[in-house]
Description:
Helices cover 65% and strands 5% of the residues. By secondary structure, it is mainly alpha-helical. The chain folds into three domains: 7-90, Fumarase C, Chain B, domain 1 (Orthogonal Bundle), CATH 1.10.275.10; 93-342, Fumarase C, Chain A, domain 2 (Up-down Bundle), CATH 1.20.200.10; 351-408, Orthogonal Bundle (Ribonucleotide Reductase Protein R1, domain 1), CATH 1.10.40. It has a two-stranded antiparallel ribbon. α9 (192-202) links the parallel β3 (177-178) and β4. The longest helix has 37 residues, at 94-130.
Amino acid sequence: MLDRYSLSPMKELWSDEYKFQKMLEVELSVCKAWNKKGLISDSDLQNILKRSKIDVDDIRIKEETCRHETVAFIESVSEKIGKSSKYFHFGLTSSDILDTALSLTMKESMLLVLKKVSILRRIIFNQAKKYKDLVMIGRTHGVHAEPITLGFKLLLYTYELDRDINRLKNSLENISYGKISGSMGTYAQVDPFIEKYVCKDLGLKQSRISSQILQRDRHAEYIFSLSILGSTLEKIATEIRNLHRTEIQEVTEPFEEGQKGSSSMPHKKNPILCERICGLSRLLRGNLLTSMENITLWHERDMSHSSNERIIVPDSLCIVDFMLTDMIYIVKNITVHRDNIQKTLKVSEGKIFSQTLMLKLVNKGAEKSKSYDVIQKLSFESGKDFLNTLKGNKFVKRYLTEKEIDDICTYKYYTKNIDKIFRRF
Length: 425
């Protein structure tokens, strides 16, 4: 069961090795741009490109002395380059490299998220089509309302995932920016051509204006889109948890051979995967609050965002990736208990047809408020014999025959437009 988690490449994107490799990718692109401008000779450029290497252990050792990660990175790479290293990191500030490299990794990570969301969307839509005509009770306030179908319930999640995908794509668009504009963003030490060249070379867009950093509203929107997706997954998981309950058991999450539900009670089959999704969604929303607070920094930049971003950005992406893996597995292997669904439909003994009966009375000439009051009173007092009591009521008999009542008190009446709704998709 746990093998499905080891297949995701998300965690590799947030390793130290990958981070420094992305930083080097940005630095080397800058060197190529300076070569185009004539500052770096062809021979120096080739030497830089050939000799530049990442040594994470060496960087960490150097950082212990200089107390500056980017400086340690520059020193480590420069030692390997040799004489040509005077052009390495020329005219740049740390955030030119850090923010542009971060954008690259966040872009790649979001593409992985979008791929998984698309897979989940397809699976849920296929399940919606499979159960399009399986009638079940609909609930509002946790109370029986009117019949729907299981496919209809799942189709609702399909459409919500479509909106999630649009939000994720928008945040991908707005995070796909780089900046190579120097210490204040004014290009005082670096020609604007360098930024234009580097961003095009790396598949990013150049920010129209930046301070020492890319502005953090971009990152907040990104975490927001992940948090909303997490809330959608929590919404689906919460519904499954409710339907999984012993007294309902209409839909249950998968339970594998050899799995144990409790250390003390052998009979238990707990919805642990759905509960886990709900718990992780709360963590995402906590990260969102931090990312919102990162928008406001002192003057042209301070470092209050830097420390927490090392946690909230990779954690949010890895959390979402993990949640999606769980939800794909759940929806793909979900157990639908048709007998329990049918049993639950009959619990209200026909009272779920009350609105249809009321409107039919009105169509036949009855006053609406009077019809409401009569049907409400009968539904409250008739116990398990609602429909027979209704058929014997003088007010109702004045407008409806027993056959008319039987004809409208059918599940088909409530699902007659389900096909039309599905055709919208």
